[in-house]
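Reviewers of the previous submission asked for a worked example of the structure-prediction workflow described in the proposal, so we include one complete record here. The input consisted solely of the amino acid sequence. No template or homolog information was supplied to the procedure at any stage.
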Amino acid sequence: MLLSIIIPCYNEQQRLRSEAFAAFANLHEEVCILFVNDGSSDSTLPLLHRLAAQCPNVEVLALPRNVGKAEAVRQGVLHLLRTQPSLSAVAFYDADMAAPLADLLMMADLQASKGYFMVAATRIRRLGGNVERRFVRFFLGRMFATAVATILHMPVYDTQCGAKVIRADVAAVIFAAPFVSRWLFDIELFARIAIAYGHRAAVLNIYEFPLSEWRDIRGSKLGWREILRQPISLFKVYWHYKKQIQRS
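From that input alone, the workflow returned the following structure tokens.
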């Protein structure tokens, strides 16, 4: 299995656990980690360069200006597809380490063994798991997820969790064009898979993986102002993909 993990970073100097990432990189030399610096205005970029100097399988892609998470991830995917022609799967993962990297590796193993288009992490509060979410975010998230499942015509539980593993050839298709939304691009990934491969194939080949742990980490770049704007952004995404999803 050849896996590359994209980690978008914007002003993560205070939250980035560089020692934990270095330990993971040194333990899993078969995994490439690409940090995409999204035009940070703090000392994130020098921190990432120091991390890359310690670990040969860590790479830094520095974007000259802030373009938002969606485009930062997309630029990371396009970079990996250009530079790693033998890549079998690409993943993206949040810099705050809210979910265990060990879960991401299990997701990658599952994707490789089953050939899924995408394995998406999901934050399900369950016995045997340790998923901690602030009540307001959880409540708003469930309302949002219900609306998204209705739009996509899929029984998806959690589109917005920032950990996903995608088959490389599928990634080349769904990341080819810029996204409509800076923050809701995860929904667009589901929609683009359904449009490109058909709705039934998408339902059968997207797997939601229940995380063993999740913690809401303070300092998210998605503030309350952006959260309150999400219904408008969701409508824009819905309107953009509506006819294409219906045809698929």
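The chain has a mean pLDDT of 90. We consider this example representative of the routine output the project will generate in years two and three.
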